[in-house]
Amino acid sequence: MEQYEIEHNRVLREFGAECTVLLKSDGAFPLEKPCELALYGSGARRTVKGGTGSGEVNSRTFVTAEAGLEAAGFTVTTKPWLEHYGALWQAEKKRFLRRLKRDALKRGTLAVLSDMGAVMPEPEYQLPLEGSGEAAIYVLARISGEGSDRKPVPGDILLTKTEIRDILTLNRKYKRFLLVLNVGGVVDLSPVTEVRNILLLSQLGVETGSILADILLGKANPSGKLSTTWDSWDAASKLGSFGDRDDTRYREGIYVGYRRFGSTGQKPLFPFGFGLSYTAFTLRPGRLRREGEQILAEVRVKNTGRYPGKETVQLYVSQPWGRLDKPFQVLAAFGKTESLQPGEETTLCLSFSLRELASYDEARACWILEPGDYLLRLGNSSAARPAAVLRLDGEAIVKQVKNCLGKPDFRDWKPEAPQAQPVDGLPVLHFRAADLETETVDYELPQEIDPLVAGLDEETLCLLNIGAFKQKGAQGVVGNAANAVAGAAGETASCLRDQGVPALVMADGPAGLRLSRRYTKDETGVHPLDGSMPETVMELMPAPAALAMRLLEKRQKAEAPIYEQNCTAIPIGTALAQSWNLELARRCGDIVGDEMERFGVQLWLAPALNLHRDVRCGRNFEYFSEDPLLSGSFAAAITRGVQAHPGCGVTVKHFAANNQETNRYSSNSQVSERALRELYLRGFEIAVREGRPHALMSSYNLINGVHSSERWDLIQDVLRAEFGFAGIVMTDWILSSMYYGKHKYPAPNAARIAAAGNDLVMPGGKGDLKAMLKGLETGLVTREQLEINATRVVKMARTLATPDGEQEAGRG
Ligand code: BGC
After folding, report:
1. Ligand 1 center to residue 54 CA distance, Å?
2. Atom of ligand 1 nearest to the CA of 514
3. What is the largest CA-CA distance in the chain?
4. Whole-angstrom Cα distance, residue 292 to residue 354?
């Protein structure tokens, strides 16, 4: 291992436990010292470090739960169980893949096109629980990824009969039993609520197993809090639709996650923001004051338990109902302490601006604060206690915008009455509506055209609006579209290289930097070896195609030298958000930025901050949370970490309302302007304002009937004019070949995309060039707009690329 890898792994191990959530604890853990352990479960040996798909990171090493525990000195007494489980899982997987391929052929398609990310539910089996030891650990794993959604079936969102039986048996048999959840999203724990110790380990990248060992031995104390509500599948929201092929109706409006639970009075199994610790804390509200529109709330936090640990304090607000209905509460601010020793006390100061609490009034296209009492609630989870009141004397319009995002064919659901009740005897801060100014937006932004771009012929101009593509041979697909850096997902055109405008190389995320671990190179460019294509894609390939690719790789491997690029898999997005520690996210960004510099990548295709609208979304693990403040703040923090490295930028994705994978290229999210603005765009606004990302990726889906990538109102009016975004916008990897079969909505078109101010069609292809040239001819897009888009790309290339315009193909 090289020094940078050792250092990156060290950082991850140091703070990993902050991303894990202790859901239940009876004090049986931590263990005093390494001992004999009965280790079971799907994730014991087949531990999952992150999900599948474009976010899969090719690291040199990965510590499984079994390996981590053994390295820490534990003796695993259940080797036969682990062997048997492994063999039966392999056999089941073979059958599963055969079935997928056969069924796809029957439907007249290929599994690699229609079943990407399909998850094999855990099998049922009967294996004796014969191990022994001072404690038993059951590691339950789940995996998912882009292309498919999760299902409420046993072995996916639900537990299998086998899992329930084995978990409950172990819980009864051992005084010290820990259920460890090596999952990226919610599983329904309702059948095993009697289990006394449950740790949501999550998927923590390269060091997953070592972090588990540290937690078991009390070398690290879990201090994460849920970034999404955990409940049983039966209690999941059925208000809106999910996973519909053509139109998904976000009927629940703004009542997503804890916003719904609070508003209906339902109590979930584990609320948003919840998490225990080996130690205990008390919170005491301190001084409350205002500085202009800013509210500052001090909180005293004391460690009253026996172990050192960190605590997260959360501040929620219940807003008054008026013309608009309001959720029971929304998260307004949060903060995390440093590690406190037993008995130690500290003061945290949480702050937010009154303006940030505004609701969107569709009738008047403005953000308003309604008169009345805003009840502040303080706690270490969303089950927080009333602490103070902000009293506003009248209505304030804090920002005037325009409605522009279309309309769904329904009205949003709303609760019948407010749930929040007034509380007497709390400190009150008074605000005058007249003191809150109304912000306005200038939608006529100045457009710049670079003289170099103005002089280009039409084809070159179009090429600058499209990702670089190979004129000959197979079209670029995820993981091999780029020519300069092996395994990068794409790059911009290099047609102006001689004029000092180098190509921008883009590589995937979000759980680290996705590159090929090994590659060869010749005068035609780089050639990725193993790991260039996600494993989940390879296994769905028809056998002849997979064989051809392997043979090609074999031939390339014979052509030494072989170069290496080892990247560090960091915790998945949800795990990062569970830390509620923005500094930790910044440090992860720093790891990624360091590797981008090392391997010559300018744009990282991450962070991903779509909301956890529904537990079934197959990509939730990549995303942070069900709450836009938490999501946006984490995206901004990781952005700061990456962009502190010269020549490195992030690409926040997928803008917007991209909350399901079913029919992802052409599903239409029907959603109200209020829900869009208060939930689905809000995180992006925070990420843009606080993180200043260099790039953003529009999403595949449509919003109210129009593809996100073709919406001028979304990209130009909202993103650039309202949010102040100054970077480049690229499409998601459209792969026109994926738009096969019949669709209700037409495929996006390169000319319409460019006309919407979406600067780059990625990864680019001959079809895109043809469509753009034709669009120019027919007036679908103007030359002026292409020049404006190309200017933004050229400026970004000059800003980010190395000064002499030369891209090194990997320094590893
Ligand atoms: C995914 C993106 C990813 C892109 C490039 C797409 O399939 O949706 O998140 O960045 O591929 O790999």
Report:
1. 6
2. 12
3. 78
4. 9
* pLDDT for residue 432: 97
- Mean per-residue pLDDT for 250-256? 98
Nearest CA to ligand 1 atom 11: 733
Beta strand pairing call for 36-40 and 135-141: parallel
The Cα 66–Cα 83 span in angstroms is 12
pLDDT at 477: 45
Residues with Cβ within 8 Å of residue 681, at least 6 apart in sequence: 656, 718
Question: If you measure from the C-alpha of residue 766 to the centroid of ligand 1, how many angstroms do you get, rounded to a whole number?
Answer: 19
The residue contributing the CA closest to ligand 1 atom 7 is 733
> Which protein residues are within 6 Å of ligand 1, measured from CB?
54, 146, 478, 489, 508, 605, 653, 732-733
Lowest average pLDDT, out of 35-44, 216-225, 447-456, 462-471, goes to 462-471
Instruction: Give the DSSP per-residue string, 72-111.
Output: TT-EE--HHHHHHHHHHHHHHHHHHHHHHHHHHHHTTS-H
* Substitution candidate for ligand 1 out of 113, 146, 514, 532 with most atoms within 8 A of CB: 146
Measured from the Cα of 651, ligand 1's closest atom is 10
pLDDT digit string (tens) for 135-157? 999 999 999 999 999 999 999 99
Instruction: For residues 646-673, give the mean pLDDT.
Output: 96
The strands making up 428-431's β-sheet, listed across from edge to edge, are 330-336, 312-318, 372-379, 385-392, 428-431
Testing ligand 1's pocket by substitution, the residue of 619, 701, 733 carrying the most ligand atoms inside 8 A of its CB is 733
Q: What is the pLDDT of residues 777-810, one digit of tens each?
A: 999 999 999 999 999 999 999 999 864 433 333 3
Q: What is the pLDDT of residue 289?
A: 95
- How far apart (Å, rounded) are the C-alpha atoms in residues 229 and 557? 47
Report CA-CA distances (Å) from 764 to 462, 477, 522, 602, 769. Answer: 11, 10, 23, 18, 8
What mean pLDDT is predicted for residues 739-746? 83
**pLDDT tens, residue by residue, 592-612:** 999 999 999 999 999 999 999
pLDDT tens column, 373-399: 999 999 999 999 999 999 999 999 999
Strand partners, 289: 296
> Which atom of ligand 1 is least distant from the CA of 606?
10
- Ligand 1 centre to CA of 410 (Å) is 31
- The atom number, within ligand 1, closest to the CA of 653 reads 9
Taking the CA of residue 622 as reference, the ligand 1 atom at the shortest distance is 9
Contact 687, 630 (CB under 8 A): no
> Residue 474: pLDDT above 80?
no
Q: Torsion over CA of 262, 268, 272 and 275, rounded to 10 degrees?
A: 140
- The Å distance, Cα 709 to ligand 1 centre, comes to 14
Closest ligand 1 atom to 490 CA: 5
pLDDT tens-digit readout, 84-137:
999 999 999 999 999 999 998 898 888 888 888 888 999 999 999 999 999 999
Ligand 1 atom 2: residue of nearest CA: 732
Q: What is the DSSP string of 187-255?
A: ---GGGTT-S-EEE----GGGHHHHHHHHHTTSS------SS-B--GGGS--SS--S-SSEEE-TTTT-
In this structure, the residue with its CA closest to atom 12 of ligand 1 is 478
